[in-house]
Structures are given as C-alpha cells and as structure tokens.
Amino acid sequence: MTQGDWEQSVPEEIRCDVLWKIAAYRFSLFLGELAESDAGKILRLRRAYKVADQLQRSSGDISAAIAEGYSRTGGADRARFFEYALGSAREARDWYYKNRETLGKTVFEHRLKLSTQIIKLLITMIRQQRGPEGRRPK
What we know:
By secondary structure, the chain is mainly alpha-helical. It is built from 7 helices and no strands.
C-alpha cells in the first residue's frame, strides 16, 4: 500500500482535523499502520512476541504523542510531547533495523527512510517549540 492510497482510506474526521496538516503526524500514523502488518510477519517467521510488541508499541506511540503534544498550548509543553514522539521514532527505527532480515530489504529500507524522515521533522518541531535558542526553560 502506498502512503497516498492509505491517506485516502483514513476517515474524514481525522483528515479534517488541523492535526492532519502536520506531516510528522501523517507519516507516523502511516508507520503505525505498517508496523501492525510488519509485526505480524515477525511473529509468523520468528515467533518473537516481545519483539513484535515493541515494534508495534513504539511505532504507534509516535503519532499518539504528536497528537497529545499538538493539543497543548505552551511551547515547552508541546516540545516535551514531541520529544516523547522522537524517542519512540528512534526506538521504532531501532526495532526495524534489528528485524531487517526478517522483513526483507525492500520493507526495511522503506521503514528506515520513513522513520528517519519522521525523526528529522520532529527535531525541527521541537526546536520551533523551544524558541530561538532551542533550550528548555529553567
């Protein structure tokens, strides 16, 4: 499934929310969906419940943390949730790397690029929320 096809399948109630305009949210929601089927493949081939569970959890947590953070009013509060999303994105990328042989080269490379794109977007979003100096408040 391509991201464009997937986006058309997302309910209008989600696509009409202002949150949908955030690229990191859309990409991470898509990654979360992909992780569902990827985890199923890991379970079938490796019978590794904990690995599949971690992949699903970390991938699913990215968009959830972005959604929660975007709903906060203060920049520092938003940045904190975007940092949670960043941690989950890096964790998901790590789990994908560890399962690259099980998932195959094409799937792994796609997930690697998608997760790295999400990470880059989140780093930018965190810096924007932290202000010009990019620091945490004292």
